[in-house]
Each structure stands twice: as C-alpha cells, then as structure tokens.
Design goal:
28% strand
Length: 219
C-alpha cells in the first residue's frame, strides 16, 4: 500500500508545466502594426478612396490651385489597376460629374474635368455657347469665361457625338482648359473616380490655409 500523500500536495501530473511563448519585442509589435496599417491604406487607396491635389487653374472657380480632394473610386465600378478594366459597374458617369481620369496623351498623368456629354449626346460649341443635342445648355453657374470668342476648338467646336463607353469632358475655366475639345473623348476604363469633397486647401502663394474650403463638397 502506497504511503499517504501529504495534505495540500497535488499529484505530479497536476504539477506539469508548459513553456510560455516568448513575448514579442516592442520593435516587432510596432513593425507588424505599421505593416498592417500600410497594407490597409494601400488597399483603400487602390479600390475605394484616393487623395488628389489640384495643380492648375483649369477648374477655376470650382476648384482652386492647392485644393486637396478625395475621390470615390468605387462609384463607377471596381477598376483593376494597371489593366484599367472593371469587374463591376454600379453607376455610369453623369453630366455634371467632376471626374479624375488618365490623361489620354500621357498615361502617367491624371486629369480632372467636368462631364459635359455622355454616350449618345451630340456636343457643339458656337462662340463659347455650349449646345447639347441641338439645344443650348441653360445656365452653367460653374463655367468661367475670361476672353473674347475666337475661331478654333476652344470656342467653336463640333458637332460630335459621344460614342458608347466614353464621355466628353471640359474644364470649368473654359478659356484655360486643355480638354476633350482638343484631344477627344475619355473612355470609361480610364476614369479613376468622382471627386466628392475637399479635405484640405492651401494657398501656396500667400501661405495660408483656406479654412472655409475644408470639408466642402465638390459639385
């Protein structure tokens, strides 16, 4: 018969211990957190929202030089980077949308303009006046003109019909915008998204923040 176990002492099986995993170093924890944050930011930037800065005055007065915008990249469908094709198409660009797209004559650059014509629209400009489908377009409060009308595509253009899968775009600063009047239509596949809000605006010449523009919706 085995000797009685002293009171309060557990069996050897209960006394077995397992090795504890070595705690992660602080550096490794920060590195993993940074990696996850960067991967998430890249994913969001690629498929959902991307920030852009306005470097020129082609969209004055709607957009100022130094405005920083957020662009909805999912609205018109999921666009596959590099290839430019879309897996899904939720909405089509509409007249009046302000879009960011790949510049047709230099695919390393992005342009931002306003959609003036959608597939099937006939676009014509006579002495600066915009005609759509044979009818003069009404008041365009965003359009800006600064110079007298002159011959050439800037002030006299068309008529042309927008083909399927394309849009016709123009800058709001009509006398100082290099747009569809000069280089043609923008294919759906080249549209990166629709601008929707100004999150920051900086006047580089005067060196001050345009506080009144922060959070302003783009339309």
């Amino acid at each position: 018969m085995s000797a009685p176990r002293p009171q309060g002492v557990k069996s050897s099986r209960a006394e077995e211990v397992r090795p504890v995993a070595k705690a992660k170093s602080t550096f490794r924890e920060y590195a993993e957190a940074l990696f996850v944050a960067l991967a998430l930011a890249l994913f969001i930037r690629t498929f959902f929202v991307q920030a852009f800065k306005i470097p020129s005055g082609s969209m004055l007065e709607t957009l100022q030089i130094g405005d920083h915008l957020l662009v909805n990249k999912l609205l018109y469908g999921l666009r596959i980077p590099v290839y430019g094709t879309r897996l899904f198409s939720y909405f089509k660009p509409e007249r009046g949308d302000i879009i960011v797209f790949v510049y047709p004559e230099d695919r390393e650059k992005d342009f931002i303009k306003r959609v003036i014509g959608i597939p099937g629209d006939e676009i014509e400009i006579r002495d600066k006046k915009l005609f759509r489908n044979g009818q003069p377009v009404g008041d365009e409060p965003y359009a800006r003109y600064a110079e007298p009308a002159e011959p050439g595509p800037r002030d006299n253009f068309g008529p042309v019909t927008v083909p399927d899968g394309n849009v016709f775009v123009m800058g709001d600063n009509r006398d100082h915008s290099f747009d569809s009047r000069f280089w043609g239509f923008v294919p759906y596949e080249d549209i990166k998204g629709k601008a929707f809000v100004i999150y920051w605006s900086w006047d580089g010449d005067d060196g001050w923040v345009r506080w009144a523009r922060l959070g302003k919706l783009v339309h």
